[in-house]
Structure formats: C-alpha cells, structure tokens
Specification:
The protein is α+β, with helices and mostly antiparallel strands. About 30% of the residues lie in helices and about 25% in strands. It has ten helices and 20 strands. The relative contact order is 0.19.
Length: about 400
C-alpha cells in the first residue's frame, strides 16, 4: 500500500522533502498557509548558496551544507535556473580579528570548502575586491547566488508531476494521532496520514505543540533588515564581502552581497521582531511578544547579549549607524549609496530554556510526526540534503 505523507510548510525545505518523497512513490500532500510558496524565510533571505565556511566540523550544518550546495547547483543546471558563483571574501579589518579569521579558515578546510584561499595582505584583497578595506581574508570563490523562490517553485512542479498535492492557503489548525495515523485539520480540509513532517519555520514550535512535543526549543523571531545599493555604487562590490563573525553570536553581521540578478544589497542586521512575521517595527503581535518575554530563557539571553542587542537596534533605527557598520569594509561607500530599504526577513531562531540560541539543525520525533525544530541558514543551501537526512533517519 502506498504510504500517505503530509508535509506542513511550503518553504524550500518542506518542498524539497515533498519532492524527494513523491519521487520515491509516497502519496504526498503539502499544507501551506500562504497563497504562494516561499513567502517567508525562503523568499526573504540573501539568496546565498553557502560553501560551508562557518560551521562546526562534523555538525549537521557542516555535512548537509556541503552536500546540499552540490545538489542545488546540479538542480539549477537541470532546470535552467541561474546559479552564479560570485565568490565570498571574509575580511579581517584589523589585527583583533585575525584569531577568529584563522578559526574560520580551519573550519573551512575541515569542511572541505572548495578552492579556499587565505590572503594576508591588503593588495591581495584588492585584487579580488578593489574597494575593500582589511589586512587579511579568506576567499571562497565557489560561494554562489541563486533565486530560492524560483528554485522552490521548480521543485513544486516536480512534486505535482509525481502526483503530489500542494494545498495553498491551508493553514494547519490541529493535528492529532488517531489509531496509528495522524489527523491533520485545516479550515477547509481534514486528512489522515501514516506520517507527517513539520517544516513550519517561524511556527514550528506552535505546530509541534499540537502533537505534544516539548515547548523547547521555542522560536525567537529575529528580523534581518537590508539596504539596496544604488546601481551606480554597486560597482564598489564585485561579489560578496563578509565580516569575521563574532563567535559569541549566531549571526554573521552586516555584509555586502551581489545577488543573482546583479543588484547589491547590504545586510542583514539582527534585531528582535515583535511578531513571528514582524517584517517591520510597526508589525506587532502582543501575543508573540508576550510569549517571548515570559520564556524562561529571556532574562539569560538579555544578560548575555544586551550590548549587542542595543547596538543592532540602534543601527536599525538610525541609518547613519547602519551605514557606519557597512563603511568599515568599503570606505568609499557614501550614505546616499544605500538607496532604500529592501524587504526584510525574519529568521526562525530556536531558543532554549536556558537562554541559549541553538546553532545546529535540530529535529524532534513524536510518534509518526517529525518536526524540524531549528533550520536557520544554511537551510536553503542544504534543503535537498536535509530532505535526504530526514527521510533516511526518521521516515525509513
């Protein structure tokens, strides 16, 4: 008998999993609450295909990013979708960042980042990025840019071609286990499946509670804001210019990214969102905000990161401070070169009771329901590899 599998969430990870399962002969139904696919994290990120520079060797992020990058490149080639290897330069501006840069280099080598190069003089940096400021860097020429929304739609076509259903505007409102099957309820439908996989991103903890999963990790929505550069000033950046990340914080910091369609944007920063889908300061959910404030991890998180939080929020509210962060890497940048705010994204950051921010991918199993509890960047890069991992470890 053909196994019936439900997938909750129509971002790139959910659709990649649906594609894999439908291709293997399962009867797949995807439930997506929005009227289109890829409306949240998938369609609101930098569009970067990561090569695996940052991740702890041996972690799921490191392993699945390496595999996923290759799979994504081949998929784009097969479907005729753009895949631009524009390269990434991770820059140490001064000597205080050299130790952290060396750690990035070490991790990159252990993770097998292809064609990685260490550069130890400003002239070498400027051969790659003529307008950059810094004293050393690591260069990843295979880091690429893509259109993740277009990739998700192409995957969805494969799901439908294999007989799968994708139900748009179908928000899951309840899910229960009954007689060895999982009952999935929306406002318009009621279905039963042998297995269900939850890839609900910003709402993954909410859906997990439907089947009695632990409340932890909770999702802490973190907004990333971008500025677009003017077409004239975009010539200051050839590919991607990244800072050396602060190892105490799971976000990379403001950077420059040349996108797949040749525009250049600056960002993102990382500020607390006041709603799970809080794409601006005026988008407020009292319920979401109160749930975050009353979470046991709230006070430990504030104690540990309040200085960085104040800095990030200040730069969000004051363009001059945001500009100052960016200009550190490209001194020729003028504030007027940041022409307008681009659409922001909100990252679904998993958050423990002790205030810790989960770094690696995390999956829970509750009976016949599998829940992706933490799938931040590089989840889009890793999407096809995540699908294989979940299918083999939890669905076989």
């Amino acid at each position: 008998m053909t196994e019936r599998v439900g997938v909750v969430g129509g971002g790139i990870v959910g659709i990649a999993l649906a594609r894999l399962l439908a291709g293997r002969g399962s009867e797949v139904t995807v439930f997506e609450k929005e009227s289109r696919l890829a409306q949240h994290q998938t369609g609101r990120n930098s569009g970067v295909v990561h090569a695996g520079l940052y991740y702890k060797p041996g972690s799921l992020k490191a392993m699945l990013c390496a595999a996923g990058r290759v799979q994504l490149r081949e998929f784009c080639k097969e479907k005729g979708l753009p895949f631009r290897e524009v390269g990434k330069l991770v820059v140490a501006v001064d000597e205080s960042e050299l130790h952290a840069l060396a750690e990035i280099e070490r991790r990159s080598i252990e993770n097998g980042v292809p064609d990685l190069a260490r550069i130890d003089d400003p002239a070498g940096l400027r051969e790659i990025e003529p307008h950059v400021a810094g004293i050393a860097a690591v260069h990843s020429p295979r880091t690429a840019a893509v259109d993740y929304s277009a990739i998700t739609e192409a995957m969805a076509q494969d799901v439908r071609a294999a007989g799968g259903r994708i139900l748009l505007a179908h928000e899951v409102t309840a899910m229960t286990s009954e007689n060895g099957r999982v009952r999935v309820v929306t406002a318009a439908t009621e279905d039963r499946f042998e297995r269900v996989v939850v890839c609900a991103g910003l709402h993954s903890d909410v859906v997990a509670r439907f089947v009695g999963a632990d409340a932890a990790p909770k999702i802490l929505p973190m907004r990333g804001e971008y500025w677009d550069m003017t077409p004239e000033s975009a010539k200051l950046v050839r590919g991607m210019i990244y800072p050396v990340p602060d190892p105490r914080f799971p976000f990379l910091g403001v950077h420059f990214t040349r996108g797949v369609y040749d525009g250049v944007h600056v960002g993102p920063n990382a500020v607390p969102a006041l709603a799970r889908e809080g794409y601006g300061w005026l988008r407020i959910s009292p319920k979401d905000t109160w749930e975050s404030l009353r979470w046991p991890g709230a006070l430990p998180l504030v104690r540990q990161h309040w200085r960085m939080g104040v800095d990030e929020i200040s730069a969000s509210l004051l363009k001059a401070l945001y500009y100052r962060k960016a200009r550190r890497f490209v001194p020729e940048l003028k504030m007027s070169d940041l022409s307008h705010r681009a659409p922001a994204g909100v990252r679904a950051q998993a958050w423990g009771r002790d205030g810790s921010l989960l770094d690696d991918f995390a999956v829970d199993q509750v009976g016949a329901v599998t829940v992706l509890r933490n799938a931040p960047s590089p989840a889009a890069t890793s999407s096809m590899a995540i699908a294989e991992y979940v299918a083999e470890k939890y669905l076989s």
